[in-house]
Amino acid sequence: MTTEGDARRHARQVRAALERSYTSHVYAGDLQQYGVVGAEQRLLSRALTALAVRIVAGVDPVTAGGFVIDGIADQGIDGIALCKQPPHVYLVQAKWSDTGAAKIDREAARELVSGLDYLDRERFSEFNARGEALGEAASALMVEGNAQVTLVIALMGTATPGPNVIRVLDDAMARFNQHGPRVKYCFLHAQDFSRQVRQDREPEPITLDVTLGPWHQHDGLHTSFQGSVRVEDVAAWSATYGAGLFRANIRDPLGATRTNSGIVRSLITEPGNFWYRNNGITVLCDSIEARPGSMQFAHNLPMQLTAVNASIVNGAQTVTAIAEAMRIHPEIAAQAKVGVRVIATNGVTGFTEDVTKATNLQNSVEARDFIALDPVQSEIREDFAADLDKQYTIKRGAPDPSPESGCSIVEAAAALACLHPTADYSARLARSLDPLWERGERGAYDVLFDPRPPALQIWRAVTAVRAVREALHSTRSQREGRAAAVAQHSEYLIAHLVLKHLGISQIDERSYPFEDEILPRVADTVAALVPWLIHHADAEYGADTQIRTILANPEQTRHLSTLVLSSAATGEDAPTLPAEYIRAKPERKPRRPNTVPYLVDANAITEGTPLVYYSAVSTEQAALAEWLAEDLRRSRATWVNSRTKPILWEADQQQYSPSGLIREMWQLADWKEQPVANQGTTRWLVDGGESLWTLALRLQEAEEETESDRIA
Predict the structure, then answer these.
(1) What beta strand segments (E) does 177-232 contain?
(2) Residue 94 · residue 52 · CB < 8 Å
(3) What does the pLDDT look like over 561-598, one tens digit per residue?
(4) Distance, CA of 631 to CA of 13 (rounded, Å)
(5) CA 571, CA 578: separation in Å to the nearest integer?
(6) Which parts of 401-479 are beta strand (E)?
(7) Which pTM was predicted?
(8) Which among 205, 309, 312, 317 is positioned nearest to 249, based on CA atoms?
(9) Taking Cα atoms as reference points, which of 481, 479, 498, 605 lies closest to residue 547?
(10) Where are the domains of the chain?
(11) CATH, domain range 4-201
């Protein structure tokens, strides 16, 4: 059942697509007379006509726009589309609605039928200039080509047309089909347009040519072949299709990891041994066309396979490493071969997912990886692109987008936990983000993503949590001891409290002034709520109780949340905190351990974790923007558990210290005004948007809190 919210979502997505791909291809020279709003709505209606033509006639947006005749004297027809093979004429009437509530009434249906009557009687002069030319061509196709005619009613709405409309159309069919079934009608609704928009954003299915030699065929329920493939062929797949090769995989290539660098070294030092050392590649596809080199001696020659709608479901890291080795030393790496399996799914439901999970269990797999197979996440990614023109990364290994251009599933899930009506889910994140991927009755994932949240809601929640984190960071020097620990470990709970206090029940509404009025209030709201949180935590549970212990107890968390929000609602200032909670002389604070050695010794980051470069310094952003855009690998790296060089840069596969890599990047970008020093650990972000420096600080303060409690 389609809800009002679904209809609005469809309308938002379709509108974005119309403005992006259709409005520039329809006639708009007569719209100035209608004013800004009127012209906009009529332009969208014409663009919707073009989209309807694309759906029924299968033409591209430019061609579809040329079939639009909407305007004065259109005679109830907004578009006349012509198809010659087979002969077909489509007469389109479109109704646009910003809210997805468009309908057709009996009078509009009569106008459409009347327009068909004019064409049938060759009264082309009744139409405007565009309609007259297309009308003549349509009439010729109807008479000489015996073309079928379809009346297309295109509605940006979800409601089924009423019986009066159907009666008008059925009566017309009876008149025009007296001598054979030449005319029919159909309806297109909001969900049909949304589906086409999604399809247009999907990459084309990959047809992969695979040369196996030697090879053998596996006898079983699924057509399958296994054999050896030259690595230069695999590199060619990567160059041609990129990340599209892995769309059905449980995760994307993990980038420049120590393991992948080892694969690269193996290829360029001992290519002859590569086949023995590598687990190989598994390709799933819809079907396989096999062409043996000989009918009698097939196994003596390579087997040529064409894999239709192919995806690599295991071996993404191998493919990435092969492509890198071929880039560095193609003449050496090309001597190697790799084992490849090609399996046809034959349309068996669930087979792809089963094989993907089973083959990847041989490697390190996290609960988050299986979430990548949930269709809901693909739909959210499509919503982000269509609604917001932003990126949403799902798979582990996929580089996170820059903060201004999108977010990852990790940030999204954490933000939704903060947005949830109760404090339970945000509090769980004090120790780890792993609870986000728990399924089942008490799991967080299904609560947060079922039903599927709108992209706008997710994005606004993400930006709010980022604003909370920034506010906490900017004021951390004002807090000492327990106050610092409460603020540090309650980051997500504080974000939840901020969202609740601001009262953002309409966060998913386009008209809601979130960016202009709500987001600017986050910093002040944080400043008001944090003292209340500290006060009530101490008053209710004692100043000697670890804040993480409180957060681990759902009942205590809910109670604490209620107290904080109730106190804040009064508008009163929180009671003055004890003097030992206020940092008066930060220079006396003992020096904390260096960030990188601490993170390595604490085993705080899993080796191979993707990192993304981001600088909050505007001059640095401007200086590096063009250079970074030239090669996306320049802003990506992975973590290596090394005390001196923990950053493995994807751009050159070399290891650096955080600050050393930033200096290298500044030099390569030819930034003339670069400063003498930099704090590199603040510029490399892990999952959730937390910098290496912030992560280390949070963990160190947690240890200090624990030590203080032990001594006490």
Answers:
(1) 183-188, 208-212, 215-218, 224-230
(2) yes
(3) 999 999 999 989 888 888 888 876 544 455 567 899 99
(4) 30
(5) 21
(6) 406-408
(7) 0.58
(8) 312
(9) 481
(10) 4-201, 208-365, 375-588, 595-711
(11) 3.40.91
